[in-house]
Predict the structure.
Amino acid sequence: MRSPFIQKISRWLVPLAALAAFAAWMYIAPPGMLGKLDALGYAVCHRIGERSFHIGERQLPLCARCSGTFSAAAIALTFFAVTARKRGGMPIKKFHWLFLLFFLAFGVDGTNSYIYLLKQTTGMLQQIPTLYIPNSTLRLFTGSGMGMTMAAFIFPAFNQTVWRDLDAAPVLDSWKRLLSLLGILLMVDLLILGESPLVLYPLAFVSSFGVLALLTLIFGIVWLMIMRQDNTFTSPRQLWLTALAGFTLAMLMILSIDLFRYNLTGTWGGFPLG
């Protein structure tokens, strides 16, 4: 464990760093609530309009695939937080084939979609056959599978790093638990495909929250390892500094990518297709 002096200083420096990073990001991000969500999506997503859901003429912060990925991650993390609070075991091995299938589907659909895009916009790669015409339904479903997969492994990894009194049980240890989560995600995806503003508005917030939640958990793990505080916590209330440190590092990453991409492209919209 780090020295008490470093621990004490970090209690002051981390909140100040969090405030500075968040203020800087708020300053450079587009105006309005949806503008801020756009800036979150901008750090992780191509934001090509033709591949995104819209509320009228208003494009969502993330493309269809990323909307599926990060909304599913947010929902799955919430599901695990409620049903597997301190569980640190990875999903049982007989479910690994399903997560491998989700991973492969995400990779195949993403690669096929990217090649198709290059063919349509640049004329390149015409010698490579298109497996099928990409569409937003497949992007959403394959994204959701990948989001669930990431959450199913990141959540127990975080718990393994945090808790002194870790529950070694797997986060997914039964068909009932797995099918419950799959059912929730399928229902949400079907609602999204209806493209009702009543669903798409919440989707903009949930998917953006998923981006922040995943990055905060990952950087929270990094912070605990740097500070040598792994497996020292017994209560969620003790995690405020870890959560804030993870959030700060996430915001610094998002801020850096936003600034680099905006300076490169000069627009908060999607990557130019021409």
Remarks:
- The chain has a mean pLDDT of 93.
- Residues 4-265 form one domain.
- The first strand starts at residue 54 and ends at 55.
